[in-house]
Amino acid sequence: MNNFYSKFYKELFLTNLLFASLTFVVILFVLSFFFPWLGDIPLVVFLAIILLIVTDIVLLYRIESGIFARRNTAERLSNGDDNKIIIHLENFYPFPIKIGVIDEIPFQFQKRDIWFKSRLAPRQQKIIEYTLKPLKRGEYDFGDIHIYTRSPLGLISRRFTFEESKTLKVYPSFLQMRKFELLAISNRLLEAGIKKIRRLGHSMEFERVKNYVSGDDYRTINWKASARRGDLMVNSFTDEKSQNVYCIIDKSRSMKMPFEGLSLLDYSINATLALSNIAMLKDDKAGIITVSEKIGAVLPADRKPAQLNKILDVLYKEKTRYLELNMEALYLTVRHTIKQRSLVVFFTNFESMSSLERQLPYLKKIARFHLLLIVFFENTELKKLSEEPASDVEGIYIKTIADKFAYEKKQIVLELARHGIQSILTSPQNLTINTINRYLEIKVRQTI
Q: Can you give the pTM of this predicted structure?
């Protein structure tokens, strides 16, 4: 019995309508002192409210499980993307109800206003959908779902609590990866901004002999096959396969810089995942190396079906460290791990020429054995400052400094090119598209 009353009081909540009704009764009692003709009206109204409260309690409590709720989510969340969360509701009461829904979302989102209002007819089912956008990888703990239910009288509210506690892992942006994967499979990469690059030469991978059609390169005509068939035949070539594509991710303090909620490290991780997937779709092998003051994860290049899950598991655990990048350790690891000439995509960040000069000797050594592509970032905030007109001396000073840093980034690109090292200077939001574009261009030009 004690448990029943304890549960009853924990579930019972008074509504604003009840407080307004009681306030009205109090006013009537006060007025009855000045207007005797009111007589017993205040008492009658008060008793009527009491009767309605009892009726409301009976309506809401006579059914033990008057409502049902369940949260549906994916098995894992995608970092930096809108992830759909679905709450299923069902009303078992024989009358319409009004509900308020509180979903206890993980503390990382710092939201305290997840409150949904809805109405449910008798025996009706309804779905509430909303999205969450995580900005950090890791484990996110969801709590319970609380449903506050009111009958048509609306004087009290009964709370139903559904234990839906669940821990979900936030992985690198696999939603972005799937988008590029679907576009690549359906040859619609142009829709995502991936450029179509004209083939400038022929690979060594012979595919087949086919009939000549208008637009085929005359240099590919197979004269012997044409003589046998009595019609023009051309040799068809395909991109070279089974080439190694290694993504090296700098996770030192230079990659901690935030942009729209995500760090540069997270943007690099998302781009690495998408690029690795595209590379394996192109029948290349994808591998990963992470580095800061010491070597982190090393995943040898492969194209087996399980490789993508291995890449996801590696990237999920990586965090920014706060020390300088150890380029000597990186060079030794590259020489030890990557035995054949490969495309090495190095995601890092240079803010000045001096930071490049410290790393340049090792970059030149890596470029002797592999095709090295350096990917680093524009400082978009400084770019905005340099584009704004200056209105005073302080504004001129800030604009000058911003222009100086922007110019130095361009000088870094030229300095790398002078030593035969390819580079991409990109804004964080365009990182994935620009990196995939350059990879496809390298494949077409057969420079690996």
A: 0.76
